[in-house]
Amino acid sequence: MASVGSAAWARWVINGDELREIDDREIPAGWPYGLFAIGAQKPNMLPVDPNSFGSAESADDLAMAYPLNQGLARWAFAMTKDVAIPDTPALKQQRDAWKGYPNAQRPPFVLMGETLGSVRYWHGPKRTQWARDWVKLWTRGKGTFVMTNMESQTAARVIQSFGKLGFVDPQRVLVLRTASNPSGPPPGSDSLSTIGDEAPGQVAAYEANYRVGAPVVHAILAQWSQYAEKIPQAGAP
To answer: What is the spatial distance between Cα 81 and Cα 111, in angstroms, rounded to a whole number?
Structure first.
């Protein structure tokens, strides 16, 4: 979906932690992997039994997707979609291996897409397919997996809880993620040889965070007299 160094404004934050798991070597015939939702009977199925998750009163209480203010996210994207993110020879050399994946071979760019957080550091094409499916499942087919990380799910849960207590306004939350490394190996490479390889992407991701995030922060501060009462919005494309 994107190249290393790219930046994505999220419309949902997806939680990849709470789920059920069977070792992939022991899964029933026809299952793509051994990961599935609590309260469901198989992968790519929403919960049907809320009592499987303790005090949950309905299947909606088991939701793994935290919706963000999409109008606000579109506003931020519209402002920054043409921001130039620096490219380097090292990034280009890394991208050349991604033959057959045109977006992975593009210089860093700004896009919209969902972020999936889990404390497990997973890597490889099979888990990437799980991530695509998990995001589609919990956004009811509306979201697209673009960025993986290890902390946004926790932050989103805290914001949701503090919002219910009246401490923060979840409608004012923006989530920007930048890519320091792919979620799997390029064609012809094995997963073990590429897991954790964040060079030269780490510095590129830091730079993209600043270059794409700063214009939005500056715009909000400059027009705070307006935005203090009315959250900036952009319509659906």
So the answer is: 7
